[in-house]
Predict the structure of Phosphoribosyl-dephospho-CoA transferase.
Amino acid sequence: MNVRPHDLLWLQADATLLDIQEPWVAQQWSVQQPVVVRRDRMQQGNIPIGVRGAVRHQRAAGWVQAQNVVRIDAPEMLVERAASHVFRALPTVQALIQLQQQRWTWCWGVTGSTGFALATSLPVLHADSDLDLLIRAPQPLDPDELAEWQRQLARLPCRVDTQVETPVGAFALNEWLRTGRVLLKTAQGPRLTDLPWTEENP
C-alpha cells in the first residue's frame, strides 16, 4: 500500500490502533474519524499514524495494520472539496479557493486542521485557524515560482505555512526562501541541510 505522510486513512470498523499510550484516545477516537500518516518507518507492515483529539494539544502517535485501511484521502484530493464544502465561508477554506484559481507547475494539497475538516466536516476550524499546505517536489523547483507562491500566500485571508515534500523528507518553504538551509524532516529523524533532495550532504 502506497501511503505518504499527511494522508488521512479511514479504517475498517473493527480496526485497532497499536502502541497508543495516551488514555484519552480510547474515549475520543472512533473509526468514524480518519487517522493521519506520520513520518516514520514502516514496521512489519504497520503504518505509522497520528490521532487528533478534541483539543489542539491532544495528539497521539501509534500504528495501524495496512490491511485495516479502507480509504485514503490525500492532501491533493482535499483541495478539490473546498469550493462546495459546508465550511467554504471560513478564512482557510476561502484561501484554498483563491489559490486554486491560479495555475502552478507542481502538485499541492492541504493538511492540518483544514484538511481534516474538509475530510470529515467536523467543526475543528475557527476564524483564526492557520492554513497548512504541502507542495509535492520530486525534483528541485523553480526558485522564482516558489517566491511567487509565497507572495500569493501573503495576500490570503489567513496565516499560511507550506511544507515542501521531496523524495527524502519535507522542509518549511519560508525557511528555504530565507536561508537556503533547512531542517529536513525525514523518516530517520530531522537533519540540517542545504540539499533537501539528496539523501545526505556530501
Q: What stands out?
A: The first strand starts at residue 8 and ends at 11. The first helix runs from residue 24 to 28.
